Amino acid sequence: MTTTTTELTGGGAAPDAAPLPARRNRGGGGGLGSYILIRFLLIFPTVFILVTTVFVLMRSTGDPITAALGGRLTGDQLAERVHAAGYDRPILVQYWEYLTGIFTGDFGTTISDNRPVTEVLTTFGSATLELSLYALLVAFVLGIPLGRLAAYFRDKWPDAVLRVLAILSYATPVFFMGLLFKLIFSIWLDWLPVAGRASTGAEIQLSTMDGGTGLYTIDALILGDPEVLRDVLQHAVLPALTLGLLTAGVFLRLVRTNVIGTLGMGYVEAARSRGVPERRLLRKHAYRPALIPIVTVMGLQIALLLSGAVLTETTFEWKGLGFQLVEYLQARDFVAVQGIVVMLAVIVAVTNFLVDILAAFIDPRVRY
Amino acid sequence: MATVADPTVPVAPPVTRGGWRRLPVIHQLRQSVGLQRAMLVAGLALCGLFVLVAIFAPLLAPYEFNQLRDPSGSFGAQQAPSSEHWLGTTVGGYDVLSRVIWGTRTALFVIVVAVLMSIVLGVLLGLVSGYFGGWLDRLLVVVCDAIYAFPSLLLAIVVAIVISGGESSLVGGVMAAAISITVIYVPQYFRVVRAEVVRIKAEAFVESARVIGMGHWRIMTRHVFRNSTRTLPLILTLNASEAILTLAALGFLGFGIEPTAAAEWGYDLQKALSDVTSGIWWTSIFPGLAIVLVVLGPTLVGESLNDLADPRLRTRRRAADVPLGVAEVTVVPGGTLGAPGGLSGIEDVREGEKWGQR
To answer: The complex's ipTM?
Structure first.
């Protein structure tokens, strides 16, 4: 590996990666273009496989109407409802209808409250988005500097402490972490609200305002009421910390590993032999290339974040998609569950695509 | 297939010179120093403790997990810790300590079932797919990649609906969690085993075996499989901890096992959610801590193994202690994890992407 390549690409997660002619593709040449195209086309089989898997699995238990209303209706009424919804037709016909529906943006209609699933998304999606953004912020602010610190003090006590904390953040289930925070900060210390996205007064103000984005922080800023803003932010602290710490642990690990990796690279060694001080080596030479892999794994972090969001929202009654999903689960409304799951699959696939493209712009090695 | 249920003693490797010292984990235990050794030892100790508690649960627990009263009367709900109930009672009137102890059994069941199923399926698919290649291989790779990138909890929810239809018996609940974990982890075993198989397939000794007329199955099991197991212990530890987290998460979301069927910590935490608001801490802290400790065991082992497998991260003894300090770089078939060029498979899984996913 030549020094130029190394400096360009860093010594990230794949020390064994074959040295690529990194400069050739700079400026979005043909390599990047075809990469984007192939990567884009890959979305379709991914979504198709997931949709099919979920469809087959959910249908193997019987039709959703019987599942939701089974105990409450007589056999005839049930059969009528099943017939009206078309669930007595051949499974392949239903499957085809479902697939074409998804392509036109129709993810089905919930049984329990008779709403299109897309409407559920637009109503509750913003809350989940807000929570995820806060969590990412926490993860970046905590994970990256601490990972750097751990690498700097490698194998000394600060490193040991940080690593144990990172492992703990993984080993603690999100909802238990949330419960602990609630207990400590809301009940015992009484610093922060127990649950929800805002207190009742603020919630009413925010939901009745015109042109609201659904992101309460932004809405509160538009509203220009400092009290409402304070209220919204106070409500966000604990959920954001809960979900953010999970990802922060992952980032810490990743940054630590990569900084240690780049610190051992030839060009850092060379700088060291020229007498560059250790601190400067870390700051100027090893740190920045080590951040690249963070971008490349962000795609998979989104899946992690979404899973975590479902649990965090349930813990804090944060009325987002995850919270709603659990409500539908408890109502045995499997059309809604299937719709939300499939829709999230599409969102994850598309976000993954965008992140991969971003990563390809930054790091030439990830291109095909 | 040489798989062992106990997460701490993962896969029997081919016996080579050096005997038991070359066994995974034991080998690493001898190799490690400092923090890495501390983590490994602590992790193994936690795993051991967990298994012991699960085995001796009937002796350790003061009451049954579904016991509501004793001869002196009903336990009462949400009783604070006392001499009768060391850790208090839950909102449903169960003894917290007993449910924490009995919960280890449910957890162990899930780990064993999930790990066995994932290993068998994932390794088998990886072997066949990598060895034969062709369209099946390509199809499996795409399917596994699709599942790999999907939020695992959502998949687990769907699988749980299918398996138990939302009903929660012991077997149904355990199988729901175990099968969901299997679905999520098969792609991971598949990926690393396949990558190894593709690499090993090109080696001369496989060629030779084919030349002397060995059958595909025999080559696959004797030559390829045994040499492609070195990354398995790592994934296994992840797999085990993830199994518990998924079981607990499903329980927390209301897909748990009914309290009369078995003790399950996720269910207890769900019920404790409203207790917290009224300042009742003992119903949530203890089951939660139990989950943390059980997850911590395999996670610490895995973290330590990961470090030891990566020459960049491995803390070496001082030069004086070990001559040259490079003895780990070897090409013994099925040998140490430190072999050159063999890290990519581990990095794929360990380097954070999937780490912590639940």
So the answer is: 0.78
